[in-house]
Amino acid sequence: MANGFLIWALITAVSAFILIFALRVISGRWNRKTAVGFFHPYTNDGGGGERVLWCAVKAFQEESPDLECVVYSGDHDASPQSLTARALDRFGVKLLHPPNSHIEKLWRISNRTKRVYPPCDTTGLQVLPLEREAKTPVIISVAQFRPEKAHTLQLEAFSVALGRLAADLPRPKLQFVGSCRNKSDEERLQNLQNKAIELKVDGDVEFYKNLMYRDLVRLLAGAVAGFHSMTDEHFGISVVEYMAAGAIPIAHNSAGPKMDIVLEEDGQQTGFLARSVEEYADAILKIIGMPGTERLKMAAAARQRAGRFSEQRFYQDFKAAIRPILRHRSQ
Ligand SMILES: *[C@@H]1O[C@H](CO)[C@@H](O)[C@H](O)[C@H]1NC(C)=O
Ligand SMILES: *[C@@H]1O[C@H](CO)[C@@H](O)[C@H](O)[C@H]1NC(C)=O
Hints:
Blueprint: E1 3-10, E2 20-27, E3 35-40, H1 48-63, E4 68-73, H2 80-91, E5 100-101, E6 113-115, H3 123-126, E7 138-142, H4 151-163, E8 173-178, H5 183-198, E9 205-209, H6 213-220, E10 223-227, H7 237-245, E11 248-252, H8 255-261, E12 272-274, H9 277-289, H10 292-306, H11 311-329
Parallel strand pairs: 3-4, 4-5, 7-8, 7-10, 8-9, 10-11, 11-12
Antiparallel strand pairs: 1-2, 2-6
The structure holds 2-acetamido-2-deoxy-beta-D-glucopyranose (NAG) (2 copies).
């Protein structure tokens, strides 16, 4: 009798849980090959969630190369062939078995559930100098131009902050960086640009669409702060990237940023949490008004905290979570 192993990776919308791996051992009556099943609702969103999935698959393949990996996904528009090609192309993961689409049920086995933070590839960001040009403090905002990212809130907060800026403080600049998936996103970006004109801050705001990664890194290297304003985001990889790059995060006061990311590191504050336009504006003014040494201290603590979500850490924690079942398998 052969054992079959199924691992469901569930991303819950309910809480700050980042990624939950529910492990279950199934005894098969048939002489099947051992396989690992991943459940992932969105396998091709092009963002952090997709990266988590393929890094998890890669971790399995490194630990146990003979295991078959099967991906169950909710993407109706993704074919097994296109997912297989994307995994190889973007993340260097070769699937042993083409992913299956659609899942009907969602299992929860809390007893065998482990939490592993998603892998953020921040090594290139961790080496950027923490010092920033002080004449024009840059606030960066990195997010796809999709509705839930709430770009308008950021723009309004920036405008309020400019209106309240003390005469002795430097005038900041806001840089929006993001990709557009389709025409709706393009329209959203256009509306944002119109809104900047309407608020009379268009001279202080820059827009960058579909940047190359190295250009994004260049911008992150110049930013004193990073904006995030999505409500109830499971995790918030962009927030970790700000922190790794030395930009102090101003993130939404909910879910991932609140419960996992923007927490104190060795008793030192690592960033700001906000919800309303006023709170975001306050945070901007606080960062701009900070003495250089204080800003450096906070940025250094934020960078240190970001290390908790590194790719290396992911592999370490994920492999620790799967080892018990791999051991079970060889018994
Ligand atoms: C959880 O695991 C423990 C120890 O393996 C076991 O005794 C307990 O019955 C399990 N609970 C559930 C709800 O499966
Ligand atoms: C763009 O993509 C989003 C998400 O997939 C979708 O909801 C929206 O309808 C799309 N818009 C267009 C014009 O295709």
